[in-house]
Amino acid sequence: MRTPAVAVVVALLGATNSVGQPPPADLDAIAKRVIAREQVVGASVLVAKGNRIILHKGYGFADLGLEAPTKEESVYHVVGPMMPFTGIAVMQLVERGRLSLDDDFSKFIPEFPMQGHHVSVRQLLNHTSGIVDYHYLGDPIEATSRQPKALDEVMALYSNKQWVNEPGNKWDWSISGFQLLVTIIERVTGQSYDDYVRQNLFSPAGVKSTTYCDDFTLVHGLSHGYRKLGASYVSANENDMAVNYDLRYCSTVGDLYQTWRAVRERKLVRPETLKLMSSAEGPATHMSAQDPKMQYGLALTLNHEEDHRSVGQHGSLLGYSGCLYEFPEDQLTVAVLTNTEGQNAYAIARALARAVLGLPELPTPPAVAPAKILSDQPISAAERSQLAGTFVLKFEKVPATLHDSYAQYRRTYRVFDENGRLMIQPLGEGPDRLLKQEDGTFATRSSPRNRISFILRNDRAVGMKMNSPGGSRDLAGDRVGDSDPLTFHQQLR
User: Fold this and answer.
1) Enclosing H/E stretch for 465
2) What is the per-residue pLDDT across 121-134, written as a single tens digit (0 to 9) for each?
3) pLDDT of the residue at 24
4) Are 257 and 210 in contact (CB under 8 A)?
5) Neighbours of 290 (CB within 10 A)
Protein backbone atom coordinates (compact mmCIF):
# COMPACT_ATOMS: atom_id res chain seq x y z
CA MET A 1 0.00 0.00 0.00
CA ARG A 2 1.40 3.40 -1.02
CA THR A 3 1.99 6.11 1.57
CA PRO A 4 -0.51 9.00 1.19
CA ALA A 5 0.99 11.97 -0.68
CA VAL A 6 0.71 14.40 2.22
CA ALA A 7 2.50 12.02 4.58
CA VAL A 8 5.29 11.45 2.05
CA VAL A 9 5.84 15.19 1.69
CA VAL A 10 5.99 15.72 5.44
CA ALA A 11 8.35 12.79 5.89
CA LEU A 12 10.85 14.05 3.33
CA LEU A 13 11.01 17.73 4.26
CA GLY A 14 14.62 18.74 4.07
CA ALA A 15 17.94 18.21 2.37
CA THR A 16 21.49 19.48 2.82
CA ASN A 17 21.84 23.18 2.05
CA SER A 18 23.98 24.30 -0.87
CA VAL A 19 27.08 25.33 1.09
CA GLY A 20 27.38 21.96 2.81
CA GLN A 21 26.79 23.33 6.28
CA PRO A 22 23.66 22.75 8.33
CA PRO A 23 21.43 25.87 8.35
CA PRO A 24 20.54 27.59 11.63
CA ALA A 25 18.40 25.05 13.44
CA ASP A 26 15.64 27.50 14.26
CA LEU A 27 15.19 28.66 10.66
CA ASP A 28 15.29 25.13 9.30
CA ALA A 29 12.76 23.96 11.88
CA ILE A 30 10.49 26.94 11.16
CA ALA A 31 10.62 26.28 7.42
CA LYS A 32 9.75 22.62 7.91
CA ARG A 33 6.91 23.43 10.29
CA VAL A 34 5.24 26.02 8.05
CA ILE A 35 5.71 23.94 4.89
CA ALA A 36 4.02 21.00 6.63
CA ARG A 37 1.22 23.17 8.02
CA GLU A 38 0.57 24.73 4.60
CA GLN A 39 0.68 21.26 3.00
CA VAL A 40 3.22 22.28 0.38
CA VAL A 41 4.52 19.58 -1.96
CA GLY A 42 7.92 21.17 -2.55
CA ALA A 43 9.66 24.45 -1.69
CA SER A 44 13.01 26.14 -2.12
CA VAL A 45 14.02 28.79 0.40
CA LEU A 46 16.76 31.41 0.56
CA VAL A 47 17.36 33.76 3.49
CA ALA A 48 20.19 36.31 3.38
CA LYS A 49 21.38 38.70 6.09
CA GLY A 50 23.60 41.38 4.62
CA ASN A 51 25.69 39.63 1.99
CA ARG A 52 25.62 36.29 3.83
CA ILE A 53 23.19 33.54 2.91
CA ILE A 54 22.05 31.92 6.16
CA LEU A 55 19.54 29.42 4.73
CA HIS A 56 19.42 28.00 1.21
CA LYS A 57 17.60 24.72 1.06
CA GLY A 58 15.03 22.56 -0.70
CA TYR A 59 12.15 20.78 1.04
CA GLY A 60 9.73 18.11 -0.09
CA PHE A 61 9.24 17.01 -3.70
CA ALA A 62 9.81 18.64 -7.06
CA ASP A 63 7.77 15.82 -8.60
CA LEU A 64 5.42 13.65 -6.54
CA GLY A 65 4.91 11.03 -9.23
CA LEU A 66 8.63 10.41 -9.57
CA GLU A 67 9.29 11.10 -5.88
CA ALA A 68 12.05 13.48 -6.98
CA PRO A 69 13.24 15.59 -4.05
CA THR A 70 13.31 19.36 -4.24
CA LYS A 71 16.72 21.02 -4.41
CA GLU A 72 17.76 24.40 -3.09
CA GLU A 73 17.96 25.61 -6.70
CA SER A 74 14.97 23.76 -8.17
CA VAL A 75 13.24 25.73 -10.92
CA TYR A 76 9.67 27.02 -10.58
CA HIS A 77 7.22 29.15 -12.49
CA VAL A 78 7.61 32.55 -10.87
CA VAL A 79 4.29 34.07 -9.82
CA GLY A 80 4.51 37.37 -7.97
CA PRO A 81 8.23 38.25 -7.84
CA MET A 82 8.42 38.89 -11.61
CA MET A 83 6.19 41.96 -11.30
CA PRO A 84 8.83 44.19 -9.67
CA PHE A 85 11.22 43.30 -12.49
CA THR A 86 8.63 44.33 -15.09
CA GLY A 87 8.48 47.59 -13.14
CA ILE A 88 12.29 47.86 -13.27
CA ALA A 89 12.15 47.40 -17.07
CA VAL A 90 9.62 50.23 -17.39
CA MET A 91 11.65 52.50 -15.12
CA GLN A 92 14.77 51.87 -17.19
CA LEU A 93 12.90 53.28 -20.18
CA VAL A 94 11.82 56.27 -18.08
CA GLU A 95 15.45 56.89 -17.08
CA ARG A 96 16.47 56.73 -20.75
CA GLY A 97 13.82 59.23 -21.80
CA ARG A 98 11.91 56.69 -23.90
CA LEU A 99 8.65 57.30 -22.02
CA SER A 100 7.28 59.27 -19.08
CA LEU A 101 5.35 58.10 -16.05
CA ASP A 102 2.76 60.74 -16.89
CA ASP A 103 2.25 59.55 -20.47
CA ASP A 104 -1.27 58.39 -21.22
CA PHE A 105 -0.85 54.74 -22.14
CA SER A 106 -3.13 55.22 -25.15
CA LYS A 107 -0.14 57.00 -26.71
CA PHE A 108 1.44 53.55 -27.07
CA ILE A 109 -1.69 51.39 -27.38
CA PRO A 110 -4.14 53.54 -29.36
CA GLU A 111 -6.40 50.58 -30.16
CA PHE A 112 -7.36 50.06 -26.51
CA PRO A 113 -10.97 51.21 -25.91
CA MET A 114 -10.48 53.91 -23.25
CA GLN A 115 -14.23 54.52 -22.80
CA GLY A 116 -13.58 58.20 -22.14
CA HIS A 117 -10.87 57.58 -19.51
CA HIS A 118 -7.28 58.77 -19.31
CA VAL A 119 -4.76 56.48 -17.63
CA SER A 120 -1.06 57.18 -17.11
CA VAL A 121 1.81 54.72 -17.12
CA ARG A 122 2.21 55.56 -13.41
CA GLN A 123 -1.36 54.41 -12.71
CA LEU A 124 -0.70 51.09 -14.46
CA LEU A 125 2.35 50.58 -12.25
CA ASN A 126 0.61 51.39 -8.96
CA HIS A 127 -2.75 49.67 -9.63
CA THR A 128 -4.87 52.84 -9.60
CA SER A 129 -5.90 52.62 -13.27
CA GLY A 130 -9.45 51.40 -12.59
CA ILE A 131 -9.09 48.74 -15.30
CA VAL A 132 -10.72 45.43 -14.42
CA ASP A 133 -8.38 42.52 -13.62
CA TYR A 134 -8.91 39.74 -16.15
CA HIS A 135 -7.93 37.10 -13.60
CA TYR A 136 -11.10 37.81 -11.63
CA LEU A 137 -13.64 37.76 -14.45
CA GLY A 138 -14.34 34.03 -14.28
CA ASP A 139 -15.15 32.44 -17.64
CA PRO A 140 -12.88 34.56 -19.88
CA ILE A 141 -9.74 33.24 -18.18
CA GLU A 142 -10.84 30.22 -16.11
CA ALA A 143 -12.60 28.58 -19.05
CA THR A 144 -9.57 29.11 -21.28
CA SER A 145 -6.80 28.51 -18.74
CA ARG A 146 -5.39 25.66 -20.84
CA GLN A 147 -5.57 27.61 -24.11
CA PRO A 148 -2.40 29.43 -25.24
CA LYS A 149 -2.87 33.10 -26.09
CA ALA A 150 -0.97 35.82 -27.89
CA LEU A 151 -0.51 39.18 -26.19
CA ASP A 152 -3.50 40.74 -27.96
CA GLU A 153 -5.69 37.75 -27.05
CA VAL A 154 -4.92 38.34 -23.37
CA MET A 155 -5.87 42.00 -23.79
CA ALA A 156 -9.12 40.98 -25.49
CA LEU A 157 -10.18 39.19 -22.29
CA TYR A 158 -10.79 42.50 -20.52
CA SER A 159 -10.48 45.45 -22.92
CA ASN A 160 -14.21 45.93 -23.43
CA LYS A 161 -15.28 45.21 -19.85
CA GLN A 162 -16.66 47.76 -17.43
CA TRP A 163 -14.04 49.77 -15.54
CA VAL A 164 -14.14 49.14 -11.80
CA ASN A 165 -13.13 52.65 -10.69
CA GLU A 166 -12.36 56.07 -12.10
CA PRO A 167 -8.60 56.23 -12.83
CA GLY A 168 -6.60 57.60 -9.91
CA ASN A 169 -9.48 57.40 -7.42
CA LYS A 170 -8.81 54.07 -5.69
CA TRP A 171 -6.15 51.41 -5.33
CA ASP A 172 -7.36 48.05 -6.61
CA TRP A 173 -5.18 45.21 -7.81
CA SER A 174 -5.25 44.71 -11.59
CA ILE A 175 -2.79 42.43 -13.33
CA SER A 176 -4.29 43.74 -16.58
CA GLY A 177 -2.18 46.86 -16.11
CA PHE A 178 0.99 44.77 -16.27
CA GLN A 179 -0.16 43.15 -19.50
CA LEU A 180 -0.43 46.67 -20.91
CA LEU A 181 3.02 47.57 -19.54
CA VAL A 182 4.54 44.56 -21.32
CA THR A 183 2.94 45.78 -24.56
CA ILE A 184 4.36 49.26 -23.97
CA ILE A 185 7.86 47.87 -23.38
CA GLU A 186 7.71 45.94 -26.64
CA ARG A 187 6.42 48.89 -28.68
CA VAL A 188 8.84 51.43 -27.24
CA THR A 189 11.91 49.20 -27.62
CA GLY A 190 10.98 47.30 -30.78
CA GLN A 191 12.04 44.13 -28.96
CA SER A 192 10.14 41.22 -27.50
CA TYR A 193 9.65 41.44 -23.76
CA ASP A 194 11.90 38.42 -23.30
CA ASP A 195 14.73 39.88 -25.39
CA TYR A 196 14.54 43.17 -23.52
CA VAL A 197 14.56 41.80 -19.96
CA ARG A 198 17.22 39.23 -20.82
CA GLN A 199 19.56 41.90 -22.20
CA ASN A 200 18.76 44.64 -19.69
CA LEU A 201 17.98 42.78 -16.46
CA PHE A 202 19.04 39.17 -16.30
CA SER A 203 22.34 39.40 -18.21
CA PRO A 204 23.60 42.41 -16.20
CA ALA A 205 22.53 40.60 -13.01
CA GLY A 206 24.54 37.55 -14.10
CA VAL A 207 21.79 34.99 -13.52
CA LYS A 208 21.83 31.66 -15.34
CA SER A 209 18.62 29.76 -14.55
CA THR A 210 15.95 32.36 -15.33
CA THR A 211 14.24 31.58 -18.62
CA TYR A 212 11.14 32.44 -20.59
CA CYS A 213 9.14 29.20 -20.42
CA ASP A 214 6.32 28.31 -22.74
CA ASP A 215 5.02 25.37 -24.79
CA PHE A 216 8.14 25.46 -26.94
CA THR A 217 10.65 25.42 -24.08
CA LEU A 218 12.22 22.49 -22.25
CA VAL A 219 13.07 23.82 -18.79
CA HIS A 220 15.66 21.71 -16.99
CA GLY A 221 15.01 21.17 -13.30
CA LEU A 222 11.44 22.51 -13.45
CA SER A 223 9.25 21.45 -10.52
CA HIS A 224 5.81 20.13 -11.31
CA GLY A 225 2.89 22.34 -10.19
CA TYR A 226 0.13 21.01 -7.90
CA ARG A 227 -3.16 21.96 -6.30
CA LYS A 228 -4.91 20.38 -3.35
CA LEU A 229 -7.81 18.02 -4.00
CA GLY A 230 -9.33 16.74 -0.79
CA ALA A 231 -6.57 15.05 1.20
CA SER A 232 -4.25 14.64 -1.78
CA TYR A 233 -2.77 16.55 -4.71
CA VAL A 234 -3.44 16.71 -8.44
CA SER A 235 -1.50 18.36 -11.23
CA ALA A 236 -2.28 22.01 -11.90
CA ASN A 237 -2.92 21.89 -15.62
CA GLU A 238 -3.21 25.59 -16.41
CA ASN A 239 -1.03 26.70 -19.30
CA ASP A 240 1.34 29.57 -18.59
CA MET A 241 0.81 30.72 -22.19
CA ALA A 242 -2.82 31.46 -21.27
CA VAL A 243 -1.70 34.54 -19.32
CA ASN A 244 0.46 37.62 -19.75
CA TYR A 245 4.04 37.33 -21.01
CA ASP A 246 5.65 38.36 -17.71
CA LEU A 247 3.94 35.40 -16.02
CA ARG A 248 5.70 32.99 -18.37
CA TYR A 249 9.01 32.89 -16.51
CA CYS A 250 10.82 30.14 -14.65
CA SER A 251 13.57 30.76 -12.13
CA THR A 252 15.18 29.78 -8.84
CA VAL A 253 15.36 31.45 -5.44
CA GLY A 254 19.06 32.05 -6.05
CA ASP A 255 18.41 33.89 -9.31
CA LEU A 256 15.66 36.00 -7.74
CA TYR A 257 17.99 36.98 -4.92
CA GLN A 258 20.84 37.76 -7.31
CA THR A 259 18.64 39.86 -9.61
CA TRP A 260 17.29 41.87 -6.69
CA ARG A 261 20.84 42.41 -5.43
CA ALA A 262 21.66 43.82 -8.86
CA VAL A 263 18.80 46.29 -8.37
CA ARG A 264 20.05 47.23 -4.92
CA GLU A 265 23.67 47.52 -6.16
CA ARG A 266 22.61 50.10 -8.80
CA LYS A 267 23.34 47.82 -11.75
CA LEU A 268 19.82 48.09 -13.19
CA VAL A 269 18.32 51.45 -12.10
CA ARG A 270 19.49 54.55 -10.30
CA PRO A 271 19.04 54.86 -6.50
CA GLU A 272 16.55 57.70 -6.94
CA THR A 273 14.49 55.50 -9.26
CA LEU A 274 14.32 52.69 -6.72
CA LYS A 275 13.40 55.25 -4.05
CA LEU A 276 10.53 56.45 -6.25
CA MET A 277 9.38 52.88 -6.83
CA SER A 278 9.48 52.30 -3.06
CA SER A 279 7.21 55.27 -2.29
CA ALA A 280 3.41 55.28 -2.24
CA GLU A 281 1.21 58.20 -3.24
CA GLY A 282 -2.48 59.02 -3.38
CA PRO A 283 -4.84 56.03 -3.21
CA ALA A 284 -1.88 53.61 -3.16
CA THR A 285 -1.13 54.70 0.42
CA HIS A 286 -4.30 52.80 1.43
CA MET A 287 -3.82 49.38 -0.10
CA SER A 288 -5.57 47.20 2.45
CA ALA A 289 -8.46 47.87 4.82
CA GLN A 290 -7.27 44.90 6.87
CA ASP A 291 -3.71 46.28 7.17
CA PRO A 292 -3.48 50.11 7.21
CA LYS A 293 0.33 49.98 7.10
CA MET A 294 0.39 48.09 3.79
CA GLN A 295 1.01 50.35 0.78
CA TYR A 296 1.89 50.08 -2.89
CA GLY A 297 4.66 51.87 -4.76
CA LEU A 298 5.47 51.40 -8.44
CA ALA A 299 5.35 47.64 -9.11
CA LEU A 300 6.34 47.04 -5.48
CA THR A 301 4.27 46.07 -2.45
CA LEU A 302 5.43 48.18 0.51
CA ASN A 303 4.90 45.63 3.23
CA HIS A 304 6.00 45.17 6.82
CA GLU A 305 6.39 42.84 9.76
CA GLU A 306 5.30 45.03 12.66
CA ASP A 307 7.56 48.10 12.36
CA HIS A 308 10.11 46.46 10.04
CA ARG A 309 9.40 47.75 6.54
CA SER A 310 9.85 45.60 3.44
CA VAL A 311 9.54 45.87 -0.35
CA GLY A 312 8.76 43.08 -2.76
CA GLN A 313 5.91 40.97 -4.04
CA HIS A 314 4.16 37.63 -3.54
CA GLY A 315 1.56 35.71 -5.53
CA SER A 316 0.15 32.38 -6.66
CA LEU A 317 -1.07 30.96 -9.98
CA LEU A 318 -0.61 27.94 -12.24
CA GLY A 319 -0.06 25.60 -9.28
CA TYR A 320 2.90 27.65 -8.01
CA SER A 321 3.52 30.22 -5.29
CA GLY A 322 6.26 32.80 -5.04
CA CYS A 323 7.55 35.44 -2.65
CA LEU A 324 10.48 37.88 -2.65
CA TYR A 325 10.83 40.55 0.02
CA GLU A 326 13.71 42.70 1.20
CA PHE A 327 13.81 44.51 4.53
CA PRO A 328 16.24 47.31 3.56
CA GLU A 329 16.89 48.74 7.03
CA ASP A 330 17.50 45.24 8.41
CA GLN A 331 19.59 44.10 5.42
CA LEU A 332 17.39 41.00 5.20
CA THR A 333 16.14 39.31 2.03
CA VAL A 334 13.85 36.28 1.87
CA ALA A 335 12.98 34.39 -1.32
CA VAL A 336 10.61 31.41 -1.40
CA LEU A 337 9.27 29.44 -4.36
CA THR A 338 6.88 26.49 -4.10
CA ASN A 339 5.12 24.15 -6.50
CA THR A 340 1.75 24.24 -4.70
CA GLU A 341 -1.06 26.75 -5.30
CA GLY A 342 -2.05 29.21 -2.58
CA GLN A 343 -0.22 32.00 -0.75
CA ASN A 344 1.99 29.50 1.03
CA ALA A 345 5.30 31.01 -0.14
CA TYR A 346 4.29 34.25 1.58
CA ALA A 347 3.43 32.36 4.78
CA ILE A 348 6.83 30.63 4.77
CA ALA A 349 8.69 33.86 4.05
CA ARG A 350 6.88 35.76 6.81
CA ALA A 351 7.68 33.10 9.39
CA LEU A 352 11.38 33.07 8.45
CA ALA A 353 11.65 36.87 8.32
CA ARG A 354 10.04 37.26 11.74
CA ALA A 355 12.45 34.74 13.23
CA VAL A 356 15.48 36.63 11.90
CA LEU A 357 14.02 39.94 13.03
CA GLY A 358 13.46 38.58 16.53
CA LEU A 359 9.67 38.97 16.32
CA PRO A 360 7.21 36.54 17.90
CA GLU A 361 5.69 33.86 15.72
CA LEU A 362 2.36 34.66 14.14
CA PRO A 363 -0.64 32.80 15.58
CA THR A 364 -1.15 29.41 13.99
CA PRO A 365 -4.21 29.50 11.71
CA PRO A 366 -7.05 27.34 12.99
CA ALA A 367 -6.97 23.83 11.63
CA VAL A 368 -9.49 23.13 8.91
CA ALA A 369 -11.92 20.48 10.01
CA PRO A 370 -11.91 17.41 7.78
CA ALA A 371 -14.72 17.33 5.26
CA LYS A 372 -17.65 15.16 6.22
CA ILE A 373 -18.03 11.89 4.43
CA LEU A 374 -20.28 12.57 1.47
CA SER A 375 -23.54 10.75 0.97
CA ASP A 376 -24.57 9.37 -2.40
CA GLN A 377 -28.35 9.28 -2.32
CA PRO A 378 -30.18 7.88 -5.36
CA ILE A 379 -31.32 10.40 -7.98
CA SER A 380 -34.26 9.45 -10.15
CA ALA A 381 -34.39 9.97 -13.90
CA ALA A 382 -37.16 12.55 -13.37
CA GLU A 383 -34.99 14.53 -10.95
CA ARG A 384 -31.98 14.40 -13.27
CA SER A 385 -34.16 15.82 -16.05
CA GLN A 386 -35.59 18.46 -13.72
CA LEU A 387 -32.16 19.79 -12.68
CA ALA A 388 -30.43 19.68 -16.08
CA GLY A 389 -29.48 22.99 -17.66
CA THR A 390 -26.79 25.59 -18.21
CA PHE A 391 -26.37 28.11 -15.37
CA VAL A 392 -24.36 31.34 -15.13
CA LEU A 393 -23.30 32.11 -11.55
CA LYS A 394 -21.96 35.31 -10.01
CA PHE A 395 -21.18 36.53 -6.50
CA GLU A 396 -24.29 37.16 -4.46
CA LYS A 397 -22.23 39.74 -2.58
CA VAL A 398 -18.56 40.54 -3.16
CA PRO A 399 -16.78 40.38 0.24
CA ALA A 400 -14.78 43.43 1.26
CA THR A 401 -11.63 41.28 1.28
CA LEU A 402 -11.88 40.65 -2.49
CA HIS A 403 -10.90 43.01 -5.29
CA ASP A 404 -13.49 45.16 -7.03
CA SER A 405 -13.08 43.19 -10.26
CA TYR A 406 -14.96 40.29 -8.68
CA ALA A 407 -18.20 42.26 -9.16
CA GLN A 408 -17.94 41.21 -12.82
CA TYR A 409 -17.14 37.58 -12.06
CA ARG A 410 -19.21 35.12 -14.06
CA ARG A 411 -18.81 31.33 -14.15
CA THR A 412 -20.80 28.98 -16.37
CA TYR A 413 -21.77 25.47 -15.28
CA ARG A 414 -23.87 22.83 -16.92
CA VAL A 415 -25.78 20.14 -15.06
CA PHE A 416 -26.59 17.13 -17.22
CA ASP A 417 -27.53 13.48 -17.26
CA GLU A 418 -24.65 11.31 -18.46
CA ASN A 419 -25.95 7.77 -18.88
CA GLY A 420 -27.84 7.79 -15.58
CA ARG A 421 -25.31 9.93 -13.63
CA LEU A 422 -26.07 13.52 -12.68
CA MET A 423 -22.98 15.56 -13.60
CA ILE A 424 -21.78 19.13 -13.20
CA GLN A 425 -19.15 20.77 -15.40
CA PRO A 426 -17.53 24.21 -15.24
CA LEU A 427 -16.89 25.74 -18.66
CA GLY A 428 -13.42 24.74 -19.84
CA GLU A 429 -12.94 21.97 -17.25
CA GLY A 430 -13.83 18.33 -16.81
CA PRO A 431 -17.16 17.09 -15.39
CA ASP A 432 -17.69 15.70 -11.90
CA ARG A 433 -20.53 13.68 -10.41
CA LEU A 434 -23.15 15.49 -8.34
CA LEU A 435 -23.69 13.53 -5.14
CA LYS A 436 -27.03 14.04 -3.44
CA GLN A 437 -26.77 14.59 0.31
CA GLU A 438 -29.28 13.62 2.98
CA ASP A 439 -30.46 17.22 3.35
CA GLY A 440 -31.29 17.47 -0.37
CA THR A 441 -28.25 19.54 -1.36
CA PHE A 442 -25.50 18.28 -3.65
CA ALA A 443 -21.72 18.04 -3.42
CA THR A 444 -18.78 16.84 -5.51
CA ARG A 445 -15.72 14.84 -4.56
CA SER A 446 -13.47 17.54 -6.06
CA SER A 447 -14.99 20.23 -3.76
CA PRO A 448 -16.47 18.26 -0.86
CA ARG A 449 -16.98 21.33 1.37
CA ASN A 450 -19.14 23.23 -1.10
CA ARG A 451 -22.88 22.66 -1.22
CA ILE A 452 -24.95 23.08 -4.36
CA SER A 453 -28.69 23.68 -4.35
CA PHE A 454 -31.30 24.47 -7.00
CA ILE A 455 -34.22 26.88 -7.22
CA LEU A 456 -37.23 25.09 -8.67
CA ARG A 457 -40.21 26.60 -10.44
CA ASN A 458 -42.91 24.73 -12.38
CA ASP A 459 -41.02 21.49 -11.84
CA ARG A 460 -37.79 22.80 -13.40
CA ALA A 461 -34.55 24.24 -12.00
CA VAL A 462 -34.47 27.95 -12.83
CA GLY A 463 -31.49 28.83 -10.64
CA MET A 464 -28.50 27.34 -8.85
CA LYS A 465 -26.56 28.27 -5.74
CA MET A 466 -23.06 27.21 -4.75
CA ASN A 467 -22.27 27.83 -1.09
CA SER A 468 -18.70 27.77 0.23
CA PRO A 469 -17.60 27.21 3.85
CA GLY A 470 -18.12 30.42 5.79
CA GLY A 471 -19.98 32.01 2.88
CA SER A 472 -16.94 33.95 1.63
CA ARG A 473 -17.36 32.84 -1.99
CA ASP A 474 -21.05 32.07 -2.38
CA LEU A 475 -22.23 32.06 -5.99
CA ALA A 476 -25.74 32.12 -7.40
CA GLY A 477 -27.31 32.53 -10.81
CA ASP A 478 -30.01 31.70 -13.31
CA ARG A 479 -30.56 28.93 -15.78
CA VAL A 480 -29.75 30.34 -19.22
CA GLY A 481 -30.59 27.34 -21.38
CA ASP A 482 -30.49 23.62 -21.88
CA SER A 483 -27.60 21.39 -20.92
CA ASP A 484 -26.51 20.47 -24.44
CA PRO A 485 -22.89 21.22 -25.43
CA LEU A 486 -23.85 23.89 -27.96
CA THR A 487 -25.78 25.97 -25.41
CA PHE A 488 -23.00 25.45 -22.86
CA HIS A 489 -20.11 26.50 -25.09
CA GLN A 490 -21.95 29.50 -26.55
CA GLN A 491 -21.45 31.29 -23.22
CA LEU A 492 -17.90 32.25 -24.25
CA ARG A 493 -19.02 33.86 -27.50
Assistant:
1) strand 460-467
2) 999 999 999 999 99
3) 60
4) no
5) 8
Beta pairing class for 475-481 and 435-436: unpaired
Reduced to 3 states, what is the DSSP secondary structure of residue 2? coil
d(CA 461, CA 385): 9
pLDDT greater than 90 at residue 227: yes
pLDDT band for position 15 (cuts 50, 70, 90) = very low
Nearest Cα to Cα of residue 348 among 80, 153, 19, 7: 80
Q: Could you give the CA distance from residue 151 to residue 286 in angstroms, rounded to a whole number?
A: 31
HSE value, Cβ hemisphere, 13 Å, CA-based, for 159: 15
Give whole-number Cα distances, 459 to 92, 359, 434, 454, in Å.
64, 61, 19, 11
Q: What is the pTM assigned to this prediction?
A: 0.93
Which residue, 185, 182, 205, 330, is CA-closest to 266? 205
Rounded-to-integer distance, Cα 364 and Cα 347, Å: 11
Who contacts 216 (Cβ-Cβ below 8 Å, separation ≥6)?
none
Q: How far apart are CA 301 and CA 282, in angstroms?
A: 15
What letters, b where the CB count within 10 A reaches 16 and e where it falls short, cover 342-362? bbbbbbbbbbbbbbbeeeeee
Place 16 in a pLDDT band, splitting at 50, 70 and 90.
Answer: very low
Torsion sign across C-alpha atoms 301, 304, 307, 308 = negative
Angle between helix axes 25-37 and 344-356 (nearest 10 degrees) is: 160
| Nearest partner of 228 among 78, 110, 338, 388, judged by Cα | 338
For residues 120 and 464, give the distance between their C-alpha atoms in angstroms, rounded to a whole number. 41
- In 3D space, the residue among 68, 111, 118 whose CA is nearest the CA of residue 339 turns out to be 68
Q: Report the alpha-carbon distance of residue 234 to residue 246 in Å, rounded.
A: 25
Cα 247 to Cα 151: distance, rounded to the nearest angstrom: 12
